[in-house]
Amino acid sequence: MTKRQKRLTLVLGVLAGVAIATGLILNAFRDAMVFFVTPSEVMAMTEMPERKFRIGGLVEAGSVVRDQQTVQVTFRVTDTAVSVPVTFEGILPDLFREGQGVVAEGRIDSQGVFHADKVLARHDEEYMPAEAQAAIERAGHPPGAGKGY
Amino acid sequence: MLPELGNFALVLALCLAIAQSVLPLIGASTGNEPLMRTGRSLAVGQFVFLVFSYFALTWAFVVSDFSVEYVARNSNLALPMQYKITAVWGGHEGSLLMWVTILAAWGVAVAAFSKALPREMLARVMGVLGMVSVGFLAFTVLTSNPFNRLLRVPADGADLNPLLQDPGMIVHPPLLYMGYVGMSVVFAFAIAALISGRLDAAWARWSRPWTTVAWCFMTLGIGVGSWWAYYELGWGGWWFWDPVENASFMPWLVATALIHSLAVTEKRGGFKVWTLMLAILAFALTILGAFIVRSGVITSVHSFAADPDRGIFLLGMLAVTLLGALLLYALRAPRVGFGGGFGWYSRESLLLGNNVLLAVACAAVFVGTFYPLALDAFGLGKISVGPPYFDSVFLPLMIPLLFLVGIAPQVAWKLADPVETARQLRWAFLAALAISVVWPLTMGLWKPLTALGLGLAAWILLTAALDIRNRMMRRRSQGIGSMVRSLRPSFFGMHLAHAGLAIVVVAISMVNSYEVDRDVRLGPGETASAGGFEFTLMGVEPVRGPNYDADQATIIVTRNEAHVAVLTPQRRYYDSQPENPMLQASLNRRPTRDVYVSLGERLEGEAWLVRLHYKPYMFWMWTGGLLMAFGGFLAAADRRYRLARDRAFITEEGLAPPKRPVGREVLE
Amino acid sequence: MKLRRVLLPLVAVLAILGLFYVGLGMDARELPSPLVGKPAPAFELESFFDPEVTITEADFIGEVALVNVWASWCVTCLREKPLLMELARQGITIHSFNYRDTRADAMRYLSRDNNPYTTIAFDPDGDAGLEWGVYATPETYVLDARGMIRYKRIGPLNAKILEEEVLPLIARLEAEKP
């Protein structure tokens, strides 16, 4: 091979690598992307999606009920307009609190109950998860008003 | 008064840094030797002032001077003394002061160990380091001054975030900053090479130990951070693909690529412009990391309080760095050239593979971290990508990379024969295959991905052992002493670091496949099981710590009726914020597994929520990380680099690749 | 050829920097409140210090004042407190709601570093919070002398916001006071 051909093979090899990598990334995105949905949007759903998604908002005051015999806990997530019932099994994060921001990731059943397998609250400093904030913001601004979400 | 002096010293350091970023560069371009020499003394002066400034802040913490706003926010009277001292870097402003102090320390180290560098080169390196210092010092003074006073002195301070009151958090930031800041030294070397348009083997030999040492600190910093998250956050997770973790992981990936690319540049004079590009990228990524953590552009578990002004400043720094460096690169890189050619199968080509894989991995992390931000910025909806994305991208990239780790050290530079490699390594390959089949069976359940991970780890370990054996056997006739001496630190260090990587891979494969996490409700005397262990709650009682109250559970762990351990997890209520209890996990560590318990909330009666963890091979994770860093330090300490340092040589032929015999030679 | 080689990376770098810049500007906390420009909503709560005493919106009205919503479990409130202390020292009236809290916890919170508040209405169930549209703690309102809400901040105050928005607004409101 001439030097030119060698260089060409090299460049082609690297390009092929990059192409494969891009494919990998895109593919991974398709499977791993978790959409964020607000309680109002959940209410507006006609068909419950099978995919995992996230909902965010505030933990409705007085809605947290710990089952005393199992590890299950139920609460409602509200964007101040509507609220969605959520169940979760296990220990809630340190800063989970009524009236504070929360994000839950999981699936919704046909009854409209959200089964969270992950509950996120902030650890400190930040007083509300950005997604929870967005949910409330969107509830306060019907489509067309304010920021274009 | 002392805080004002500290502030004054900080400003003086900034002035010196400004001088350092101008004078040596003028000297280098006009050939004025006294001006070139200023770089050294200015760096030392800067360091002295910053150390003073740092101690002034520490003193304010020690004597609880709450008139200093930063102290009032991050300490209080009841805080134990060791945490008062470490609280200096517990918040944004103080950690930044630590950052610039470490930067100045690296500057002094470069000045001290570079007597033999060509003087123009040293002047340029010091000049660029001065510019980096100006950037971070101005950032500190203008947006984040730790010495700001409060008009009204509070009686007591807020507190150091209880999550940070922990030994892991004491060492994590300094280690990580050592690594981050080390990247600016590498960057300074790269820019100096671009300015002069010259990049020779001496340059590469020069930059290599600095790069390796910075990489080691970064490795340790990331490892300790992961360890801290593992036991302090109490969730049993050790890596979350959190944006802040990614912020430290991206420069690490690029630095790893850089280490390997530098090897080619030193040994073969190849990959030159690519090496420079990696050095620039690694540094830019450390600034990006600071931006992610300190601007609030991405919210995360452990980012500092958001302030858009700081974000703008850091963004400006990033812009200046990237645009300036890339412009210089575009102008000068053609002069530097790519360097020597190589065959399609050679150590160079395999290391190129390593570089491509690592660069792509870094790009994948970058995309995963910022794609959600991009969507949000354009109003296309909020998404999150989380661990599944990173897992599914990383796996296919890491498999070939780990396979290459086993091969590349055995392959000759320039041109090699794959058939020969296959012949050499066939037994190692078969043995690794056998191990991948058998080892997972010890866990009771065979899983293909675990088998693959363990097989690759075994492959790396076996080939390393083979390479070490081969090298020693070649000196067999010269006696045992010569055989041991043939294992030069750089050679042995490389294999140690690779072995460390293999051990980490074992831990990841095992823990991802076989870990058990269970949340259970336990009353006194009740038992639950997880991972083959039985956990019995004996009782929960209140205990008192130095600045917190806690509920402490006593849990007896048994396996097949045999006693294993008594664990005492706590739920702590710090005096400063008793409303926010913190989990303090308790763990029992054995070489092949951790058993780990955290105490959740109280239920009705005497029952508690308890999280039980069984984590196989977690110990290997931390051992492997330590081994990687140790291997790196060993390699950086090789006598070869010291020789390069002590010998005053100025190569004039510059661009010519080093004349070295072609053939089998070991990557060091 | 040469130009193109420079241009492409340049565009990519600028695009990324631009993205970060846009990202920085997305301060999700700036929610315009429907209450701004409206009179302070009515409420009736116990005084924090004395359950016998009732506090209503009338107790908040009369001078230009801040209304701060806080709770002892709110870490951010604790961090905001030194600023409020400073404001109180400057003679600015700060009314407040103690939000979803217990008296014992809140008392400890206040005793740690004195009390910046002129009035504290005790709102353990968040009743008034609902009327006032409280999203989360801390929140701060600015009332003019006639009891109109003129400004609302969700999240903690900081020195910059105080100097650029709150303090000038207070000065203006003081000036237009009859």
TrEMBL record, chain A:
Cellular component terms per the entry's GO annotation: plasma membrane
Q: Name one Pfam family in it.
A: CcmE
- GO MF term (any one): heme binding
Report any one BP term from Gene Ontology.
protein-heme linkage
Localization recorded for this chain is: Cell inner membrane; Cell membrane
Q: So which stretches are on the Extracellular side?
A: 29-149
Membrane topology term: Single-pass type II membrane protein
Q: Which stretches of this protein does UniProt put in the Cytoplasmic compartment?
A: 1-7
Which top-level group of life is the source organism from? Bacteria
UniProt keyword terms in alphabetical order: Cell inner membrane, Cell membrane, Cytochrome c-type biogenesis, Heme, Iron, Membrane, Metal-binding, Signal-anchor, Transmembrane, Transmembrane helix
What residues does heme bind to?
A: 123, 127
Q: Which PANTHER family match?
A: CYTOCHROME C-TYPE BIOGENESIS PROTEIN CCME HOMOLOG, MITOCHONDRIAL
HAMAP family linked to this entry? CcmE
What family does this belong to? Belongs to the CcmE/CycJ family.
What this protein is reported to do is described as: Heme chaperone required for the biogenesis of c-type cytochromes. Transiently binds heme delivered by CcmC and transfers the heme to apo-cytochromes in a process facilitated by CcmF and CcmH.
- NCBIfam families, per the entry: PRK13254.1-1, PRK13254.1-3, PRK13254.1-5
This chain belongs to the protein called: Cytochrome c-type biogenesis protein CcmE
**What is the phylogenetic placement of the source species in the record?**
Bacteria, Pseudomonadati, Pseudomonadota, Gammaproteobacteria, Chromatiales
Automatic annotation (TrEMBL), chain B:
Domain spans labelled Cytochrome c assembly protein: 89-295
Q: Where are the transmembrane segments?
A: 6-30, 42-62, 96-114, 121-142, 177-197, 209-229, 249-266, 273-292, 312-331, 352-373, 393-413, 425-443, 449-468, 489-511, 617-637
Q: Answer yes or no on keyword Metal-binding.
A: no
Among the GO molecular function terms of this UniProt record, one is: heme transmembrane transporter activity
Q: Where is the Cytochrome c-type biogenesis protein CcmF C-terminal domain?
A: 315-639
List keywords of the entry alphabetically. Answer: Cell inner membrane, Cell membrane, Cytochrome c-type biogenesis, Membrane, Transmembrane, Transmembrane helix
Its GO CC terms are:
plasma membrane
InterPro entries assigned: CcmF_C, Cyt_c_assembly, Cyt_c_biogenesis, Cyt_c_biogenesis_CcmF
Q: Which domain of life is it from?
A: Bacteria
* Compartments, record wording: Cell inner membrane
The keyword Membrane belongs to this UniProt entry's keyword annotation? yes
Membrane topology term: Multi-pass membrane protein
Q: Which GO terms describe its biological process?
A: cytochrome complex assembly
Family affiliation: Belongs to the CcmF/CycK/Ccl1/NrfE/CcsA family.
Function, in words: Required for the biogenesis of c-type cytochromes. Possible subunit of a heme lyase.
Known NCBIfam families for this protein? nrfE, PRK10369.1
Any idea what this protein is called? C-type cytochrome biogenesis protein CcmF
- The source organism is Thioalkalivibrio denitrificans
